[in-house]
Amino acid sequence: QEQLVDSGGGSVQAGGSLRLSCVASGFSISRYCMGWFRQAAGREREGVASIISDHSTKYADSVKGRFTISKDIAKNTLTLQMNNLKPEDTAMYYCAARLCWTRDYTVWGQGTQVTVSS
User: Fold this and answer.
1) Do residues 84 and 66 lie in contact, with contact meaning Cβ atoms separated by under 8 Å?
2) Average pLDDT, the chain
3) Coil, helix or strand for 6?
4) In this predicted structure, what is the pLDDT of residue 80?
5) Sequence-separated (6 or more) residues with CB below 8 Å from residue 64
6) Residues in CB range of 13: below 8 A, 6 or more apart
7) In the chain, pLDDT over 90 holds for what percent of residues?
8) What residues does 111 pair with on adjacent strands?
9) DSSP structure string for 31-81
């Protein structure tokens, strides 16, 4: 059974940092393309960052230079390091996985809430 459990969200003041983690079970993230998504209240879900390998990452323009996505293969864990957080980063964050030769993310975490106050 493929499963993702994300965690690390919380409340932080603007300018602060959080690190989100996503532990995979039932499959190896080294064989999957991974991503982080977020959905703010009243907004559609948007992609935040994606990763194939450490040398192949992509970020939404709104988070470039502030967020870093990475894979820890030994721990089978996906990470999103978020620095210089802004109130507009407030959202429910979800990790997700897809087979790299497909376009649809098929495994999703339950979500972890990030709230940034001004």
Assistant:
1) yes
2) 97
3) strand
4) 98
5) none
6) 116, 117, 118
7) 97
8) none
9) GEEEEEEEE-TTS--EEEEEEEETTEEEE-TTTTTTEEEEEETTTTEEEEE
> Taking a C-beta distance cutoff of 8 angstroms, is the pair 78, 52 a contact?
no
> How many C-beta atoms lie closer than 10 Å to residue 40's C-beta?
14
The answer to whether 95 and 33 are in contact (CB under 8 A) is: no
Q: What is the pLDDT of residue 23?
A: 98
Q: How far apart are CA 117 and CA 107, in angstroms?
A: 30
Residue 103 pLDDT level (bands cut at 50, 70, 90): very high
- Which residue type sits at 68? T
Distance from the first to the final alpha carbon of the chain: 41
CB atoms within 10 A of CB 21: 18
Which tokens hold the place of 22?
């996503």
> With contact defined as beta carbons under 8 Å apart, do 4 and 95 qualify?
yes
Closest CA relative to residue 36, chosen from 75, 74, 77:
77
Give per-residue pLDDT as tens, 44-61: 999 999 999 888 999 999
